[in-house]
Amino acid sequence: MKEAKDEGAEFMVTPCPLCHMSLDIYQERAGRAVQAELNLPILHLPQLLGLAMGVPAKDLGLSRHMIPVDSIAKAVERNDRKTSA
Q1: How much is the average pLDDT of 10-17?
Q2: Against a cut of 0.70, is the pTM above it?
Q3: Are 71 and 57 in contact (CB under 8 A)?
Q4: 13 has which bridge partners?
Q5: Handedness of CA 81, 50, 64, 7 (dihedral sign)
Q6: Minimal CA–CA distance to 42: which of 18, 78, 6?
Q7: Which of 18, 24, 28, 59 lies 20 to 30 Å from 34, alpha-carbon distance?
Q8: What CATH number did the domain enclosing 34 receive?
């Protein structure tokens, strides 16, 4: 996660539910191990697909994340508005 963030990643996506939970829940502990504040949003692949298809963020459980993913949902919504105009 540190390398991804250092290289400019705004978030990460994983298809594995266990990986998603681990990366989100234990991110603070991982940051301490690498002496960095990671604060990198992690999405489960179906959540990203749902956002891309216009499913509301509340229906995808995005509010349950430990690391907020609001910025991703807002970016997808902005992109939707641009493409539909």
Answers
A1: 95
A2: yes
A3: no
A4: 43
A5: negative
A6: 18
A7: 18
A8: 3.40.50.11810
